[in-house]
Amino acid sequence: MATPLWRYVGKRLLLLIPVLFGLSLIVFFIMALIPGDPAQAILGSYATPENVARLNAQLGLDKSLPQQYLTWLGNIFQGDFGRSYNQNREVISIIAERFGATLILAGTALVLCSIFGLLAGIISASRQYGLVDKAITLIVLIGISMPAFWLGLLMIMLFAVEWRLLPASGMFSIYGGGDLPDLIRHLILPAGTLAFIATGVIARLTRASMLEVLRQDFIRTARAKGVNERRVIYRHAFKAALVSIVPVIGIQAGFVLGGAVYIETVFQWPGMGSMLVNAISTRDLLLVQGGVLVIAAAYVLINLAADVVQFILDPRVTA
Amino acid sequence: MKRIVNPIAAVAFATTSTFAIAQTPPNVLVVGQIAEPQSLDPHAVTAVNDFRILVNLYDGLVRYADGTLEVEPSLAESWDISDDGTVYKFQLRDDVEFHDGTPFDAEAVVFNFERMLDEDHPYYDTGPFPLAFYFSQIDTVEATAEHEVTFTLNEPFAPFLSNLAYPTGLLISPQAVREHGENIGRHPVGTGAYQFEEWESNSRVVLTRNNDYWDGAPDLEAVVFRPITDANTRVAEMRSGGIDMMVEVPPDNVSMFKEDPMFQVYEQAGPHVWFVILNMRNELLQDKRVRQALNYAVDKEALVNDVLQGTATVADSPIAPAFNWAYNDELDGYPYNPDRARELLEEAGAVGEELTFYVTEGGSGMLDPINMGTAIQANLESVGLDISIETYEWNTFLGRVNAGLEGEADMAEMAWMTNDPDTLPFLALRSDAMPDEGGFNSGYYSNADVDKLLEQARTSTSQEERARLYKEAQAIIVEDAPWIFVANWQQNAVATDRVENFHLQPSFLLQLRDVRKP
User: Residue B239's domain spans which residues?
Assistant: First the structure.
């Protein structure tokens, strides 16, 4: 089994190259299509055509678009992601600073929403149409339909302003702190908000696949043999249902990475999301490119990991 | 993650209570900013948000005197201006060092300006320097003695001193530029009341007290600037005790803070004008009666009180009242008078005409542009015009408006913040400042008398003479009504009741040297 798995992983990793290449092309030309340019964003009210032209020349933006893209691509192969126009710093060092924070936030949210989503789905399925099922469905639907930034602000008002239990924003305390408990206190609200919203899809899907599995013959057999109901649900049914749930968790990884954009802005989390929002509004092309590529690569890799897990869980899936 | 300076950590440990959230420690001021700074190189940045940090790190040759927009000595003790207004000779203080221990002298001043202006300077490539045109009148800058620096201008230019007081004129350590090259923006070294300690991206910029400050060391041990982009989160941090001070309080929250004795609200009018450009290449708007009618039709009082909830005052001239010496307070302006507006429109045969109005979604100094735009639309429609709004994102908007309104729109919102009464009319209301000539006269206003007055005011070295010329120019401009004059923004800030000795400056800069927080 090891050989085809590794070949599969290798093939998927190779596929990453055209995916990222295509993506970089799309991002580059979408950014080029948005009106306004970095010089205009930097100069603000002082953006006379003359000042803009001078600054664009200094920034190397007076060349044609394909030329700019090729220069950028050539530099990438030498490990040079370029410099941010606005911050005048290496794109790669800005991303390095930010990526860890996003991984902590999105990773925690993903773990939380997986755990709660699976639990909620299982409990719902085992009590189909019961009161608990209905209550869970209601909560999960609220999560799916609630705007992330609004829920985030609500959490801040309750936990930080009214009850003063948790900090309103940031990743570490401004004075003192800086250790793990400090990080966890700052992480609870943003990760909890993000997880609450992402839980819904996993819970709904878990419920559906569990219900499907519970109707199958081997479950009836197990029950007929007198296997205890707990064991039927958690050992037999859940294991079978997990096969179709794991890829969804992979897809939700994309959702939490994307959702982190709003959540990071609301909670002033120093990650890639808030960085991208700022970079787009200031037309900081190279920073947007670098950020999108890193997030896309992370998304592809997480999905690959989900596929590998599925492959291991389910012998029917072929590489 | 690193801890900030030890004294602060020590204080924090001492004060950590059993509650999850401790108050901010004494003698450390935590300021909630609207965004992370782009850079801390004073010559590389353009945003007020960054200037608020810079003025505490650096000094310039001159500065705005406390509470005014008038220039007073800073690193230069005194200066002489030649009779023709082209040679400025500054005597520098001889007791000042940069935070890195290198001496502040005439050579350092020369380095600063040549780096910004001379393309052959070895550190010119540490730019770009987008506001270098503030000093484009400088022909040469020379160290004429160890502590004497001489600027020669290529033409007399009255706003030169006030431009030197602007943050683009702050002075950075040449040694630090040589050492850090293009990364200087992350390693700022100045002569200011506070020195740079740490910048953790998107979390905080920490400055600590400069004990050797030439103008008296500040009381605070440290100032921490926190970027909190979302205005609602910034307000929540203020209310939950996470920050001691915040700037740019949303109008919706000002009254809440005013009613709470835990907080102090600060307000200060500044050199800001919010106006609507009228496209004078539109046949209808060539008629002065129509432009005056538009001014009468807009209920400015209602705009500043209801839409902006008292965070602005009514504007009636292209020069803000904050320039008290140049502002003409004898003009009547255009008080709200819809009947007069209808009369004028009828006389001009303009009733029922359609006008396109460019509105932006946001942007520096634009206040609440969408709501203001729709309120103005409603006002103008009630006197019989048909206004269609087109809304654009800020950068797109600037691109369209700055290129000139001809063939695009009849009206456009705009706002300017300047440091000299010269800047706005000179760049946006002169015949030689049309968009295709690199100016900002996007509505194509042209009046030979105004041109002459503005040219004279710019080259005169006597402030009295300049004041007279600006007042005369204002009278003509207000009568001609090339814009709808709408609002002068009042900057605001909120601080907790622990913060003492703070006030806002009309320059919109955040001077924290004298602030105490025991």
Answer: 1-56+192-244+498-518
Residue B161, φ and ψ in degrees, nearest 5:
-65, -40
CATH number at residue B398: 3.10.105.10
| Residue B346: Cβ within 10 Å count | 14
**What residue has token string 């506070």?**
B194
Instruction: Choose among B332, B273, B336, B327: nearest CA to B474.
Output: B327
Give the chain A residue nearest B31 (alpha carbons).
A174
Contact B416 A175 (CB under 8 A): no
Query: Both tokens of residue B189?
Result: 């070294």
| Residue B240 with chain A: CB contacts under 8 Å | 156, 160-161, 164, 167-168
Q: How many domains does chain A have?
A: 1
For A176, the closest chain B residue by CA position comes to B9
3-class DSSP assignment, residue B51: helix
Structure tokens at A153: 């602000």
Task: In whole angstroms, give the CA distance from residue B54 to residue B167.
Answer: 7
Chain B nearest C-alpha distance from A236 (Å): 44
Does residue B374 sit in the same domain as residue B453? yes
Say if residue B436 is in the same domain as residue B335: yes
Q: What is the largest CA-CA distance in chain B?
A: 75
pLDDT in tens, chain A (319 residues): 456 788 888 888 888 889 888 988 988 888 888 777 778 777 766 777 777 888 888 777 888 888 888 888 888 888 888 888 888 788 998 998 899 999 999 999 999 999 999 999 999 988 888 899 999 999 988 988 888 889 999 999 999 999 999 999 999 888 777 789 999 999 999 999 999 999 988 999 999 999 998 888 888 888 888 888 888 888 888 888 888 888 888 888 888 888 888 899 899 999 988 888 888 888 888 899 899 888 888 888 888 888 888 888 876 765 4
- Residue B215 and residue B159 share a domain: no
Tell whether A172 is within 8 A of chain B (Cβ). Answer: yes
Question: Is the residue at A154 inside a domain?
Answer: yes
CB contact under 8 A, A153 and B232: yes
Q: Could you tell me which chain B residue has the CA closest to the CA of A86? A: B38
Q: Do B3 and A176 touch (CB under 8 A)?
A: yes
Q: How many domains does chain B have?
A: 3
Residue A143 phi/psi, 5-degree rounding, is -60, -45
Q: Which one-letter DSSP state was computed for residue B119?
A: T
CATH number at residue B204: 3.40.190.10
- Which of A88, A94, A157 is opposite residue B44, by nearest beta carbon? A88
Verify that B176 and B321 share a domain, yes or no.
no
The shortest CB-CB distance from A41 to any of B41, B227, B395 is to B395
Q: pTM score > 0.90 for this model?
A: no
Does A311 contact chain B (CB < 8 Å)? Answer: no
Minimal CA separation from A191 to chain B, in Å: 16
